[in-house]
Write a structure and sequence with these properties.
By secondary structure, the chain is mainly beta. The chain is built from two helices and twelve strands. The longest helix is centred in the first third of the chain and has 7 residues. It is globular. 31% of the residues are buried. Bound molecules: FE2/S2 (inorganic) cluster (FES). The site of FE2/S2 (inorganic) cluster has 9 residues, from loops.
Length: 146
């Protein structure tokens, strides 16, 4: 049975094979990754300047799977949409860079698997994220930049 408020993205097996797929939900570009046994859906346009995350590489950073934006290499956790940066605390006796979070910057979308199909829930727009600006800007394929 297809839950009617969810948007179908594709077949579970197909996305497991391709490892990533882009889709539109209400005109909004999203990307679904299959990484290490889990599905993750995020806005496909980077919160920084709208880079195409669907073309980025996934890296493990400090134990967290992150998509690295192909434009300026910002790192975004797949699980939570947090922007990570490497910072130092100058007050430490021998400051060493540590990965820290800027908070949730990229909107993530809830993924549901049902009967071999992958679905994404429509976004809750009562909460906003930095990536919303670019999701709106590129909506319906406007100004496609890779
Ligand atoms: Fe993604 Fe700048 S647009 S890092």
């Amino acid at each position: 049975m297809e839950p009617d408020c969810l948007i179908i993205i594709g077949k579970e097996e197909d996305i497991k094979k391709s490892q990533r797929i882009t889709a539109k939900i209400n005109g909004r570009e999203i990307v679904v990754f299959y990484h290490e046994g889990k599905f993750h859906a995020l806005d496909s346009r980077c919160y920084h300047e709208g880079g195409p995350l669907c073309l980025g590489e996934i890296e493990d950073i400090d134990g967290q799977a992150c998509i690295v934006c192909p434009w300026h290499k910002f790192k975004i956790t797949l699980e939570t949409g947090e922007g990570l940066y490497e910072g130092i605390n100058p007050l430490e006796p021998s400051p060493t860079p540590k990965w820290q979070s800027k908070g949730v910057k990229q909107r993530i979308h809830k993924v549901t698997i049902d009967s071999g199909n992958v679905y994404v829930s429509p976004p809750d727009l009562s909460v906003s994220f930095d990536s919303d600006y670019f999701a709106e800007k590129y909506k319906n394929g406007g100004e496609l930049a890779m």
